[in-house]
Amino acid sequence: MDIYEDSRTVSRSDLAAWLRQLANQLESDGRLFYGAAGAVTVADTVRCELEIERESETEVSVEIEFSWTEPARVTVADEQEPAKDAEAAEPAETTPEPAS
């Protein structure tokens, strides 16, 4: 499932600035910002791939790819379930009635 994709023609200088911006984001808090308000948090350890390929006599491409696995998300229902079990396991407290 694609989250975001952008394709454009830029100068080599602008490309370098964009790569520096990405590097700064990774180094500071690990979030990459995209689009108007999107961001994705990059894991501390990632799998990296660099591919340089001659597409034709006149075209060369460079692809930089990195990926990671996000930890499983815990839902609110998952967090509350053990608490219900713990309450059921404890005996109900009763107050003895005074003797007459």
Question: Can you describe this structure?
Answer:
The structure is a single chain. This protein has 100 residues and is α+β, with helices and mostly antiparallel strands. The protein has one domain (12-87). The chain is built from 2 helices and 4 strands; from the N terminus they run αββββα. The protein has a two-stranded antiparallel sheet. A hairpin with a 3-residue loop joins β1 and β2. The longest helix has 17 residues, at 12-28.
What would you say about this model in short?
With 100 residues, the protein is an alpha+beta fold. It has helices spanning 12-28, 76-89, and strands at 31-34, 38-41, 47-54, 60-67.
What amount of the residues lies in strands?
15-25%
Terminal-residue CA separation? 73 Å
- As laid out across the biggest beta sheet, the strand order is 1-2
Count of individual domains: 1
Residue stretches low in confidence (pLDDT < 50, at least 5 long) are none
Broad structural category = alpha+beta
Overall spatial form: elongated
- What is the radius of gyration computed over CA atoms, rounded to a whole number of angstroms? 27 Å
The number of E-state strands comes to 4
